[in-house]
Specification:
With about 210 residues, the chain is mainly alpha-helical. The protein is built from six helices and no strands. It has a single domain, classed as Up-down Bundle (Ferritin). Helix content is about 60%, strand content about 0%. It starts with about 30 loop residues before the first helix and ends in a 17-residue tail after the last helix.
């Protein structure tokens, strides 16, 4: 591949080409390990793209709701994504494959893409993150189903753990994007005339 900075300045002994698998002690056919490693590498690449985007949104968190609460939420998403990259990379290696590491190649192989450069609203940031998470779920489910068909239960176990976590992350983002906010709620309370003896009913709730 003629990618920038791919060639080092000193001779190296290449022991294995990209997108191939060598023997690894796992009793699956070569073609099964090759297919599974290749599909796993797509997740590896996609998770790296998601990680870069989460980092950007974490650094640019701002606003009354975003600066603290979303800043910490995105920290959790970053930590989980790093954990999942490691799990999937380890599985690729155990199947005899090579996890893709070059950022340019990662973006080419990834089934999710980086958002356009620039600062957008926090809602736009999180909506883009949610779209990534939902695509990740879809692709993970496809490979879990295929791995079952090929009796690659080790890959099934790894991906099921990752999928469950990604569903949680997507749920967090979806919940944050719901059309409700404490700021709007408290303003609504303060806008009401004071009435210390008012009781809540079905027709006249306190809020």
């Amino acid at each position: 591949m003629n990618q920038p900075y791919m060639q080092p300045g000193h001779p190296m002994v290449k022991r294995q080409n990209p997108q191939t698998v060598k023997g690894s002690g796992i009793s699956l056919d070569h073609n099964v390990r090759l297919e599974m490693a290749y599909e796993l590498d797509k997740h590896n690449c996609a998770l790296h793209v998601a990680l870069h985007q989460y980092n950007k949104h974490h650094w640019l968190s701002e606003g009354a709701e975003g600066f603290i609460s979303l800043h910490h939420l995105l920290e959790e998403h970053i930590a989980k994504t790093i954990e999942h990259i490691d799990k999937i990379g380890e599985r690729i290696a155990r199947l005899g494959g090579i996890p893709t590491a070059h950022p340019v190649v990662q973006h080419e192989m990834s089934y999710i893409k980086c958002e356009a450069e620039g600062r957008y609203t926090m809602r736009d940031f999180l909506r883009n993150d949610l779209e990534h998470e939902m695509k990740l779920q879809q692709e993970l489910r496809k490979q879990i189903k295929r791995a079952h068909e090929l009796n690659d239960f080790g890959t099934v176990e790894v991906l099921e753990e990752v999928l469950l976590d990604r569903e949680d992350l997507a749920y967090h983002l979806y919940s944050v994007l719901e059309d409700d906010t404490l700021v709007r709620g408290i303003e609504h309370v303060f806008s009401q005339p004071p009435d210390k003896n008012r009781k809540a009913t079905e027709t006249t709730p306190l809020q």
